[in-house]
Amino acid sequence: MLKLRGRVSYRGSRDLEPRLLQVTENLKFPHALRGKRALLISHVPNQLSSIPEGFGAVLLRQESFLQDSALGVPLDSGVYVLPGDYSYLAEGDIVRLSPQTESISVIFRRRTPNNSILLTDRCNHYCLMCSQPPKNVEDSWLLEEAFELIRMLPGDTENIGFTGGEPTLYGDGFISLVAAAKANLPHTSLDVLSNGRAFANDEFAGKLASIAHPSLQVGIPLYSDDPVTHDYVVQSPGAYDETLRGILNLKRFGVRVEIRIVVHLQTLPRLVQTCEFISRNLLFVDHVALMGLEITGFTRANLDILWVDPYDYRDALSQAVNVLRTVGMNVSVYNHQLCVVNQDVEKECRQAISDWKNEYLPVCDDCEKRAKCGGFFSTQIMHKHSRHIKPFR
Amino acid sequence: MSKFRPITFYSSQPADTSAQYQLLPFRFTQLDDSRYVATNIAGEHIVLDPPTLHAFVGHKLPATDPAYITLRARHFLSDAHSRMGPDLLAIKVRTRYDKLAYWTGLHIFVLTLRCEHSCPYCQVSRQSEDKEAFDMSKQHAERAIALALSSPNPNIKIEFQGGEPFLNFDMMKFIVETASTWNTKLSRPKNLSFVAATNLAVINEEMLDFCVAYNVDISTSLDGPKDLHNKNRPRSGMDSYERTISGIKHVRQRLGRNKVNALMTTTLASLPLVKEIIDEYLSQGFNGIFLRPLSPYGFAIKTKFFRAYNAQQWLKFYDDGLDYIIELNRQGVDFREYYAATILAKMLTCQDPGYVDLMSPAGIGLGAVIYNYDGTVYASDEARMLAEMGDTTFKLGTVEDTFEKLFTNDTFLTALEESFAYSSPQCNDCAFEPWCGADPVFHWGQQQDFSGRKWESEFCQRNMHIFKGLVSRMESEPFVKNLFMRWANRC
Q1: Facing residue for B69 by CB, picked from A226, A244, A283
Q2: DSSP state of A362
């Protein structure tokens, strides 16, 4: 698992505000633009006598660079010494550096196709298996930062995601952000993860649609055809109706919608019925994703009421996929290893785990299908995975 | 870590456990001694045992009962946990009736009554050399084309029937060319397609060239193996089978393998041969078969063909055939029964496939309209057969009339209204109404009543039996349920 945020040791002024900077390794970067760049120094060239001035920040791979070469700390930019965890940082990545808290957050990595932007930790759901447990804090600076980030991102970025928490809690602020994404990144597809409830309001759904973003998709969880089960899983009475109405409104206005179902002990008993419900009532949604558990956040606390070995529900998964496939819907299976599903759903299995938290077990080294397999969440490897992982030979 | 609430908190909030629920519109019919089928207004169904049904209807079903949860999810009941049922039902019902607004899409042109076959069950054909008497005139054809193109439906299919339509090939050419030309001049050209219903006995290269050039599909008749087919469909030389089979091969080679389909008619001689008939379709490379009973019209009645077997005999034939087809699929052969597939689409999806006999409002006029060889316009193929027997009730008018006048014909509108199954006596109480249709021509022909007395109706007997059979088969086996889901969605 890649570490994306944490403490770093910092030398420099503590008065500086946190800010977003784009990483460069070019020592001769033009002065005019240095203020918006973080200079990453991986090794100290012989001729370098002092750290170049004018950069927004300087990132050093090793603290010894400071001692060995007696490089001075520039007055106008702080120096951060990176732990080894960030060896993946590269040209063009974007980081948030916070002098007061001596911390770094890697916000955008050029090399990965799936960059998610966290907009808030607040949420009106409290899902049993939340991987990003909500916090009731005032964090609207994240939204401000997202606006800034959108202006900084390279125009050829293929895809970005907005996630939370619940991004729509910003109301019109969220709408403005999507509009800004369309204006600044017209060729970048945008995936929003939302519980959909805000779109139960026609006017709000209409506002999102009227932006006419060319490749926007809203991913919305629907955990059961049974309202009680859905409300229980998301820990919020009345959630089912608002989410359903939100999906209907978005589709009525022509916004692409993906339905996301996390398969666990609470959703499994009606998984097939839920897919039948979708096939009958929500045939017009654009994609259905059936997802395995990420063993992090609340899932770890609730593991006893959530965990079921994917191998043990492989037939139900096959039937759920079969129902959706038969009616012609687009369906994908995420986060399931090929050795724990039946062969009939291999076509639907996707490699969907973000690269920074995607791993394989040692036994997978010998597996013929490893290249096609999505593998594991790092947290699955750490805490819980199927007892039936077996290499194909 | 903060506290999570147990599911009992959500199941008891905001409704209490005594399950206060409202019934949404639904109907139920006995499936067999131990089960009922219930359907909602959108045609979704659930099979219930009598105690569960009684408790449900009596507002006594506990909210924890698995049947309760399914009934709520399928919109048979509504409670405080979800009020989405009526809205979702409305969307599904709207989807089902969506095609009605397009009006008539299928326009059947009877090019001639002449035919070189003399099938005893045929409703209309004539053995005659008299072209004047039984062929469609150019003038009538032009008027009929204008009428067809004035339908609001964006998809117009022109079907050529007879007699044997290729005996009046010149008129077929004229109509295809004229309709195609006129269509391009419309402000919004139709998606125009053609199909010819032919016995393939007289088709030649010139005709096939034409079909290739204008994308005319072929629909033919194949009653089964050689002996049966030739017995059912006599012609001089007794070579109907040979001509049909070689015609099918020829058409496939020239037009493509999906451009020819075949229809069978069940006669008394067919009854013991359902497997052989299906095997014939299989070996001729068809992907399915439409097991059809005789229609009670025309020569079929005159020659006592129709009364040669009763509904029960035909249903046994059908059941045996369907079970055999299911068995074929179990062995890995992708083959379907099209009548079942049509009904399954209505059972398992929100789409109405628009099969004329299973539409409500009735498919007559709305689903198809017939321009007869002599310029009269009928509301359906059966309507013209009834007219051949002397009953012109379903004559809409003639090709000289305007589109508006034809389709506001009083008798036609009355027949639609009176037969509309949702408000028709007995159909109104029937769980199978969403899957069924109104057939005012059949019931008028049999009972002189547009709506029909259903307990005397073979239409009703036949379809009730098939509906129950399809539900039972799905209930008994997941394999069949999955197979039927596939049929329903590729119908």
Answers
A1: A226
A2: G
Test A281 with B349 for CB contact under 8 angstroms.
no
Angle CA(A286)–CA(A277)–CA(B14) in degrees, nearest 5?
115
Residue with tokens 């120096």: A79
Residues within 8 A of B (CB atoms), A 193-232 only: 225-229, 231-232
Q: How confident is the model at residue B4 (pLDDT cuts 50, 70, 90)?
A: very high
Full set of structural domains in chain A with CATH: 5-106 (3.50.30.10), 112-383 (3.20.20.70)
Provide the residue type at B49 as one letter: D
Please, what are the averages of pLDDT over each run of 10 residues along chain A (393 residues)? 89 84 93 92 76 88 72 72 91 93 93 91 97 93 95 94 96 98 97 98 98 97 98 97 98 98 98 98 97 95 96 98 97 96 96 90 94 94 94 93
Q: What pLDDT does residue B119 have?
A: 86
Query: Would you call B445 exposed, middle or buried from its count of C-beta atoms within 10 A (0-12, 13-18, 19+)?
Result: buried
Tokens of B356: 């004329």
Share the mean pLDDT of chain B: 92
**pLDDT score, position A69:** 56
Q: In the predicted model, is pLDDT for residue B1 greater than 50?
A: no
Give the containing element (helix H, strand E) for B181. Answer: helix B169-184
b/e map B298-326, b = 16+ CB within 10 Å: bbbbeeebbebbebeebbebbbbbbebbb
In A291-350, the residues whose Cβ lies within 8 Å of chain B are 298, 301-302, 319, 322-323, 326-328
Q: Are B93 and B100 in contact (CB under 8 A)?
A: no
- What is the pLDDT averaged over residues B313-342? 97
* pLDDT tens track for B183-208: 999 999 999 999 999 999 999 999 99
Ordered domains of chain B (ranges, CATH): 20-76+83-97 (no CATH), 102-410 (3.20.20.70)
Nearest chain A Cα distance for residue B489, angstroms: 6
Interface test with B, best of A281, A284, A305 (most B CBs within 10 A): A281
Number of H helices, E strands in chain B: 20, 15
Contact A245 B11 (CB under 8 A): no
Question: Which residues of chain A neighbour B485 with C-beta distances below 8 Å?
Answer: 323, 326-327
d(CA A227, CA B63): 12
Sign of the torsion formed by the C-alpha atoms of B286, B291, B297 and B299: positive
Contact A245 B69 (CB under 8 A): no
